[in-house]
Amino acid sequence: MQAPQDTKPRWERRKDARPQELLAAALEQFVERGYAATRLEDVARRAGVSKGTLYLYFTNKEELFKAVVRENIVQAIGEAEQDAAVFEGHSGELLRTILMAWWDEICTTHLAGITKLMLSEGQNFPELAKFYNEEVVKRGSDLITSVLVRGIGRGEFRAVDPAVMTPVLIAPVMMLMMWTNSFMPACEMPPIDPHAFMDTFIGTTLGGLEAPAA
After folding, report:
1. What distance in Å separates the CA atoms of residue 179 and residue 189, rounded to the nearest whole number?
2. Alpha helix ranges (H) inside 48-161
3. What per-residue confidence (pLDDT) applies to 188?
């Protein structure tokens, strides 16, 4: 005897599954459509729930976007902070680990679209830009700065200005992300091996940061 078909609508699945499904659908929608063009009803439809269900968890689109960022990017930064706090090796290896994790976990995934979204639409949504700057940009920058301070304090890096060196480290990774996700497909830019780029960039940087032998 054939088992009866499950005719329940998708939004009647177990309650604790809904927030994660909504966030996953919202991430895809924001990346594909941008912030301004994303509608909550489209997110709900993509997640297979009613619009009313979405409002049980998120009061508006801004709160939904913040939840997407916190669940994904901010959480990744928090994990990197925890790893850095207990790392006992050379600061150069710690810096390499953080930069490569940023590339692999953010820049090569759907999350790169959130960075692109903020670069293109942030000026139109100042409250959203302020949130992103405080919870992502500043926190990520502070993490890199702390590694530089650590390396200088331990005599592993030469005495550079961490406040100046931090954006010097961030800029090439941002450029590579834009190159691989935007410029190259749209403008037929010459292909580039991202991992070869990152390895060369980090290796050159660590060579320049290395403290002179006593």
Report:
1. 8
2. 51-57, 61-69, 75-86, 91-102, 112-121, 126-132, 138-153
3. 66
